[in-house]
Amino acid sequence: MHVPDGFLNLPTSAATGVVAAVGVGLALRGARRELNERTAPLAGLVAAFIFATQMLNFPVAAGTSGHLLGGALAAVLVGPWTATLCITVVLIAQAFLFADGGITALGTNVVLMALVGVWVGWGVFTLLRKVLPKKLVSVPIAAAVAGFVSVPTAALTFAVLFAIGGTVPVPATTVAIAMGSVHLLIGIGEALITAAVVSAVLAVRPDLVFGARSLNRITPLEIKESVPA
């Protein structure tokens, strides 16, 4: 999913850079409402985990491989605004330190993974949480579906950008079919990893999972029972 330099022309890359800058600017403001002294360390751990797991590829088909995008996972764990910042930091580090994704394509990659991946994932997660039972077990299920949907959506967004400003002599329809089909398979891996990680965190610290915050409220009865007589 990391777009290298030269795949999109300068105007398209510049446009995605502007969109990315605006999105990250809004995320800097929105994250203030999500972060506190308890959740801030988790945001750092989420960024580190996604950075590490994006370095690991799993086989998909016909010699292709995929890796975790992590947008939906981060959004469920720390909130969508903070997730946007986490993924952006990861992409910047990868581009400048490991040449994973082009420097001129950094805005494009932020749009695809830190904006589209995060917010599509969060939107799907939020919709599913409204229809699924109000229980903790529903959280990883909704997160898995969100992760699955976010991956091909980000891939098809790139296909649209390529149709607008692609520089490689490949038909836009070919790119769309290839990106969509391969990333449907990658989305399955994304769903499994997302469900596993969210389940693991819920098992030990459900109070830290942003997507489960409405299920962690202490009732007056519980407060009364917790106070020693």
Describe the structure.
- With 229 residues, this protein is mostly helical.
- It has a single domain (10-226), classed as Arp2/3 complex 21 kDa subunit ARPC3, CATH 1.10.1760.20.
- It has helices at residues 10-30, 40-54, 71-78, 80-98, 106-131, 138-165, 172-204, 220-226, and strands at residues 58-59, 65-66.
- It has a two-stranded antiparallel sheet.
- A hairpin with a 5-residue loop joins strand 1 (58-59) and strand 2.
Fold blueprint:
Elements: H1 10-30, H2 40-54, E1 58-59, E2 65-66, H3 71-78, H4 80-98, H5 106-131, H6 138-165, H7 172-204, H8 220-226
Antiparallel strand pairs: 1-2
CATH topology title: Arp2/3 complex 21 kDa subunit ARPC3
Largest sheet: 2 strands, antiparallel
CATH top-level class:
Mainly Alpha
Look at the helices and sheets and give the structural class: mainly alpha
Indicate how many domains the architecture comprises.
Answer: 1
Largest sheet, spatial ordering of strands:
1-2
Count up the helices: 8
* End-to-end C-alpha gap: 58 Å
Number of strands: 2
Radius of gyration: 19 Å
Are there runs of 5+ residues with pLDDT below 50, and where? 218-229
Q: Can you tell me the overall shape? A: globular
Provide keyphrases for this structure.
229 residues, mainly alpha, two-stranded antiparallel ribbon, 69% helix
Describe this structure in a few short sentences.
The chain has 229 residues and is mainly α. 69% of the residues lie in helices and 2% in strands.
